[in-house]
Amino acid sequence: MEDLYPSRINSEPTVIERKDPILHSDAGQLSPGPLTIEQLKSFDSNGFLFLPNLFSDQEVKNMQSELDGLWEEASSSTRPEVIREPQSDKVRSIFAVHRDDPMFSALARDSRLQSAVEQILGSEVYVHQSRINYKQGFNGKEFYWHSDFETWHVEDGMPRMRAVSFSILLDDNYEYNGPLMLIPGSHKYFVSCVGRTPENHYKDSLRKQEYGVPDHESLTWLAKQGGISVPTGPAGSVLMFECNTMHGSNSNITPFSRRNVFMVYNSVSNALVKPFSGQAPRPEHIATRQSSLVNK
Amino acid sequence: MEDLYPSRINSEPTVIERKDPILHSDAGQLSPGPLTIEQLKSFDSNGFLFLPNLFSDQEVKNMQSELDGLWEEASSSTRPEVIREPQSDKVRSIFAVHRDDPMFSALARDSRLQSAVEQILGSEVYVHQSRINYKQGFNGKEFYWHSDFETWHVEDGMPRMRAVSFSILLDDNYEYNGPLMLIPGSHKYFVSCVGRTPENHYKDSLRKQEYGVPDHESLTWLAKQGGISVPTGPAGSVLMFECNTMHGSNSNITPFSRRNVFMVYNSVSNALVKPFSGQAPRPEHIATRQSSLVNK
Predict the structure, then answer these.
(1) What CA–CA distance (Å, rounded) separates B77 from B97?
(2) pTM: predicted TM-score of the whole model, two decimal places
(3) Average pLDDT of A2-17?
(4) Domain B14-270 is classified in which CATH homologous superfamily?
(5) Do A175 and B230 touch (CB under 8 A)?
(6) What pLDDT score was predicted for residue A51?
(7) A118-175 tens-digit pLDDT
(8) Is residue A45 within a helix (H) or strand (E), and if so which, with residue range?
(9) Nearest chain B alpha carbon to A219
């Protein structure tokens, strides 16, 4: 298959124009769904959409206590799904919660998420990846700028830009507890990164990304065009963002944790192929290759 | 001299009530000066005051180019005044610029700063410490929570809480480029920290603080009482804050640097004594012991 978005191949970074639609239509018609035309337009132009209070207080409470239980369990676990902070043993992320946890499995099938994403992707969808991110108070370290698609394309073999992520906020997000920052409009460009990917580096990369890192010049160019947006809001709010939107977050030294559940949907028409790096694919819990298992 | 604020002595952290005034009067009368009663009250209650656009665009430009020149010079310097980032060789701070640089020496005597601080401290003042903080884009790391007074008391022998700091913003401060965060009201409490200070640790501590670090419980207690405030504004704005106000900042992964000049004034009635740690004092460029040299 032709590599429309080559990355980690050249010695100089380049910026390529996006070759895929953002709103994917089915036979020229946008699909019906819960998002208004204004919301779709905003997603189209910015690459993200913030939905305040999509989940109720009670739903938030239930998910929070599920998070606490999983944290407890993960703290002493050596399961590969559990990723730790780069400079401590604190749990940073737990992967594949849509597969392993009944509550998050139900969340993956929740129509508030699934119908919205089907509307944007113009097709049936499946969960490509899910995880909990614990950005603990005092200790949470930064996530450097990246396009998720760049990694999913190079390391997992996602061929086209036809996936959308949800971050379900399970703590109040303030401007000061390391909230997600996004560069509006950045989803229209693909930043081709330098450096080859070593085999089996993914375990380290989930703690601290060292490959697929966009260069300073391209980031500055994107941020000067689009600025930086920092959506904040109460727990239960949801941030949905396009798979190629450049995003990252600063550290969190405040006492206030910033936990979220991250759920990625890919179009069934965009199932994974052989990784474009030419290397072995990452394991199932990071990028499932069973796209036929539509979560319905 | 009696140690009114013991710290790094006990094995358990404690919170002590402040034993000094915040607005220091001269014979029961507040001193006249540029700050309004409302501004003084706000400083008294919050422990800081934000003064937007105190310096003109032209003054900012002049200071910015001075910063560029000093950065250039510092990059290859081994002077003790130059401190580097904890995980890279990038310049993090340059100390004693009020002593070594003509422009910042003039800034130290600028009446917009000096008269305001004399109004609060109710006496003549001198510059206890000055520095430039370069919080570079992409690479700027966090400054963990601390009370400056705790360090100045333990390591430098500052006896009482009668000093005020200015941060002169030389880049636009946004909520996303690692701006200073303060806990309103925290200046009314002294968090006594645990752990003894090793001799000569200060060179490392200026890159990354490991002693005089307040505990999680005290920080959470303070932040739940007062919240967290993140003043932002254009370059040329000035943040003044009380020597005991708890503050810190997150990392800065954005392309936008967040440079500032930091100028600390101490009351001439509060000159340094022997460090309360019982150890040798830190060098002159970090804490001057020549309080007689009032900058007039």
Answers:
(1) 15
(2) 0.90
(3) 92
(4) q2cbj1_9rhob like domain (2.60.120.620)
(5) yes
(6) 97
(7) 999 999 999 999 999 988 888 888 889 999 999 999 999 999 999 999 999 999 999 9
(8) helix A37-46
(9) B255
CA distance B71 to B78: 13
Q: Which of B9, B23, B15, B7 is nearest to B161 (CA)?
A: B23
Count CA within 13 A, CB hemisphere, residue B45.
Answer: 7
Per the CB < 8 Å rule, is A256 touching B223? yes
**Per-residue pLDDT averaged across A71-98, rounded?**
90
CA–CA gap between residue A135 and residue B284 (Å, rounded): 40
pLDDT tens, residue by residue, A29-57:
777 889 999 999 999 999 999 999 999 99
Does B254 sit within 8 Å of A223, measured CB to CB? yes
User: How many CB pairs below 8 Å do chains A and B form together?
Assistant: 69
Could you list the beta-strand ranges (E) of chain B. Answer: 14-17, 48-51, 82-84, 91-95, 125-133, 143-146, 163-169, 180-182, 189-192, 238-242, 247-249, 260-267
The pLDDT value given to residue B22: 97
Instruction: Tell whether the model's pLDDT for residue A296 goes beyond 50.
Output: no
- ipTM confidence: 0.87
Q: Which of B81, B115, B117, B83 is nearest to B98 (CA)?
A: B81
Q: Which of B175, B249, B253 is closest, CB to CB, to A175?
A: B175
What pLDDT is attached to residue B203? 66
Q: Which pLDDT score is estimated for B296?
A: 45
Report which of A258, A250, A277 is spatially closest to residue A193, judged by C-alpha positions.
A277
CB contact under 8 A, B252 and A250: yes
The amino acid at A64: Q
Burial class (CB in 10 A: 0-12, 13-18, 19+), B172: middle
* Nearest Cα residue in chain A from B252: A250
- Structure letter (DSSP) for residue A202: H
Maximum pairwise Cα distance, chain B: 51
- CB–CB contact A145 B253 (8 Å): yes
For chain B, the residues whose C-beta falls within 8 A of a C-beta of chain A are 137-138, 141-142, 144-145, 174-176, 178, 181, 216, 219-220, 223-224, 228, 230, 248-256
Local structure of A273: helix, strand or coil: coil
For CA atoms B190, B229, A234, A141, the dihedral sign is negative
Q: Which pLDDT score, from 0 to 100, does residue A25 have?
A: 81
| Helix ranges, A125-283 (H) | 148-156, 202-205, 216-226
* pLDDT surpasses 60 at A294: no
Residues of A in contact with B219 (CB under 8 A): 138, 255
- The low-confidence residues of chain B, meaning pLDDT below 70, are 26-28, 200-210, 292-296
